[in-house]
Structures are given as C-alpha cells and as structure tokens.
Design a protein that fits this description.
The protein is α+β, with helices and mostly antiparallel strands. It is 23% helix and 37% strand. It folds into 2 domains: 10-72, Winged helix-like DNA-binding domain superfamily/Winged helix DNA-binding domain (Arc Repressor Mutant, subunit A), CATH 1.10.10; 79-252, Chorismate lyase-like (Chorismate lyase), CATH 3.40.1410. The protein is elongated, with a radius of gyration of 22 Å.
Length: 257
C-alpha cells in the first residue's frame, strides 16, 4: 500500500494541476505553470515537473506550444455515437447527421459525414486470430475505415474477416460488389452465413501514435476501444476494432424492450 512518503513525487503535482484544470481554476486557454515554476512552487525536482506535464498532455488536458509553454486544452462538448448505424460500413457506431444547437427557437445543424477505406489481404496477427478462432498467420481480409464529420476525423475502425470464408464470393471485398456498404450481417446472409450473435467488449486505453495521428489527438490521449465480433452458429465470421477519442464521444446503445 502506498503512503504519502512512498508515492512518486510527481503525483502530488499532477493531482493538484489536474484538479485546478477540472474545477475551472485554470480555464481553457490558460497558461499552465512552467517547469521552472512547478519546481519552485511545489518544491520538486525537474524530473517530477517534466513527468507531471507529460501526463497532463497524454491525458489531453493540456497542450504544448513550441517556444511558448503549455496551455489548458479546450475540450469539445461530448458527442453521442449511436450504436449500429448501418450507413457507416465497418463500424458499429456513427454520429447523427443532424444535431440540435440552442433551444430558443430550436435549431439544428447538418453535419457532412464521410469515410475513407482500404482493403488488403494480410496474415492474421495473434490477437485477431484468437478473436476469429483461426491460426495465427492465416489469411484475413482487413479493411480500415476512417470516419470524419465536417472534415474532422472522429473514428477509426478496422475489420477482419477470414479470407477462406468469403474467397470467391461476391462479398470477398467488403466495399466492392453488389453488397458494398451493406454491413456484415447482410453481406454474410447473401452467401448463406446467418449471423446470430454479436458481442462487444469496450475498454479505455491510451492511444497509439498512429491512431493519435489519424484522429488528431495528442499521442497517449485516452480512447474508447471497442472490439466487436459477429458469430454464426458459434463460429466467428468477422471482428472489428473501433477506436474513438474518449474525451469527445459517448457511446449510446439502444435495446428493444
């Protein structure tokens, strides 16, 4: 069990600065104390000051500006990602095309939604192979999607299907052929594969550098990671990894009752 005497020194600085940011004492756009100011004000060393600022940057609470210092990052208002939007291939989530703005009088704005995609046949990595119940190295059809709203990247999705399942069929490439963009369940049904169960595991983790670059978030910023698997009679026929910025979105699930 950690005590005040044994916990890392930087945590005291981190907790205080984080609290001041979240309470509004340090408002969006405000300059955060410099490394030297932290050393003087908190009585810590340079390593602790540097580490505390690095964690705040990774958490997306502050941003560094070369030659100027660090400033409190303006966090956008969270947007709802609706579960199971069939018009966004490769992903179980999409954002509403219209959103309310103000209530006197009620108004809405329409978002311009778009996505990019690329499909390749690759050997299954161990984690993907485990999700699909195949051997590592077996061929899978991988399709990567980047969903944008008004030109701003909002969601990454990477879909994997066993190549042996769809090879030689009209749905071998998800975004080509007569079922392009129709979603996993419809595409599989068209070749006689009846999806009867879908599972989703949701977690929060730091973003990887490539993900951060594509989603325009600070490296290491928290993201929501969703792994979705489609099953047909107990056999996994597709799995998708979805990544969205955790500070910008809420996942919404709807269940018929």
């Amino acid at each position: 069990m950690r005590t005040a005497a044994t916990e890392p020194v930087y945590l005291r600085v981190l907790d205080d600065l984080r609290s001041r940011i979240r309470s509004g004492v340090l408002e969006p756009g405000a300059r955060v104390p410099s490394r030297n100011a932290i050393i003087a004000n908190y009585g810590v060393g340079e390593t602790a000051a540097k580490h505390a600022l690095a964690v705040l940057i990774a958490e997306g609470l502050i941003e560094g500006r070369p030659g100027s210092g660090c400033y409190v990052r303006k966090a956008p208002a969270p947007t709802v990602l609706e579960h199971d939007r069939p018009q966004f291939p490769g992903s179980p989530f999409g954002i509403p095309e219209t959103v309310p703005v103000g209530d006197d009088p009620p108004q809405t704005i329409t978002r311009r939604l778009s996505w990019e995609h690329r499909t390749d046949q690759v050997p299954a990595a161990p984690q993907v192979a485990a999700s699909l119940g195949i051997a590592a190295g077996d061929a899978v059809v991988m399709t990567r999607y980047l969903l944008s709203s008004d030109g701003e990247p909002v969601q990454l999705a990477t879909s994997y299907e066993p190549a042996a399942l769809t090879d030689g069929t009209p749905v071998a490439i998800p975004e080509q052929g007569p079922m392009a963009g129709r979603g996993v369940i419809e595409r599989m049904r068209s070749i006689g594969v009846a999806v009867d169960e879908v599972t989703e595991d949701v977690s929060v983790r730091p973003s990887l550098r490539g993900e951060a670059d594509e989603l325009a978030v600070p490296p290491g910023a928290a993201v929501l990671a969703v792994r979705r698997v489609h099953y047909a009679a107990g056999r996994a026929v597709e799995t998708t990894d979805v990544v969205v910025p955790a500070d910008r979105f809420t996942l919404r699930y709807r269940f018929p009752a």
